[in-house]
Design brief:
The protein is mainly α and 180 residues long. The chain folds into 2 domains: 89 residues, Winged helix-like DNA-binding domain superfamily/Winged helix DNA-binding domain (Arc Repressor Mutant, subunit A, Orthogonal Bundle), CATH 1.10.10.10; 80 residues. It has 8 helices and 3 strands; from the N terminus they run αβααββααααα. The chain has a 3-stranded antiparallel sheet with strand order 1-3-2. Helix 1 crosses helix 4. The longest helix is centred in the C-terminal third of the chain and has 26 residues. It starts with a helix and ends with a helix. 22% of the residues are buried.
């Protein structure tokens, strides 16, 4: 499972490379613009992630330009990289209270790369509903403490579901905003 080791940022950078080869600097800028409002990437993070992607065969160096400073590598996604992004986008996240940032990233990346964002939302919705069924069963059989713990988790999942529905309803508008 090489997909596990490259993480959220690795997959996001890979997805950004699908539109064409880019330098590390351009990748950082695109990431920060689309996803890094709260937490922009450090250059070190970009370069360490790119070297991991390179080692895993998910990107290749497409060109090296010697400028005034250090040489600049331009990276291109490989077929294995595209497959990896496909797999990551199609895998639902484990429902958690603060899931939105990853989920939002997946939806925007799907839109940027011409994939079906509605499918990602549907898959996630099914995963949330599955978790809610398990929690509801546990709540039925549990003592008061267990019931309260399950209620807390269920309320978070319900809020996530509302977000999923709202986002699905606004996909057209989001597609336009992302294309800008």
């Amino acid at each position: 499972m090489q997909g596990m080791s490259i993480g959220h940022i690795g997959h996001t950078l890979l997805g950004l490379l699908e539109s064409g080869p880019r330098h590390g600097y351009d990748l950082k800028r695109a990431f920060d613009e689309k996803f890094g409002h709260d937490r922009p990437l450090h250059y070190g993070q970009v370069y360490s992630t790119m070297s991991r992607l390179l080692k895993n065969g998910l990107v290749e160096v497409d060109a090296i330009e010697a400028g005034g400073g250090p040489e600049r590598k331009r990276y291109a996604i490989t077929d294995a990289g595209i497959t990896d992004v496909d797999r990551w986008l199609a895998t639902p996240e484990k429902p958690e209270p603060y899931l939105q940032s990853t989920l939002y990233t997946k939806v925007v990346l799907a839109l940027l790369t011409g994939r079906n964002a509605a499918d990602i939302l549907d898959t996630q919705r099914a995963e949330h509903l599955r978790s809610m069924r398990i929690l509801t069963d546990r709540k039925r059989q549990g003592d008061l403490a267990d019931q309260l713990i399950c209620d807390h988790a269920l309320f978070h999942l319900e809020a996530d579901l509302r977000w999923l529905e709202l986002t699905a309803a606004r996909l057209g508008k989001l597609r336009e905003a992302v294309a800008r």
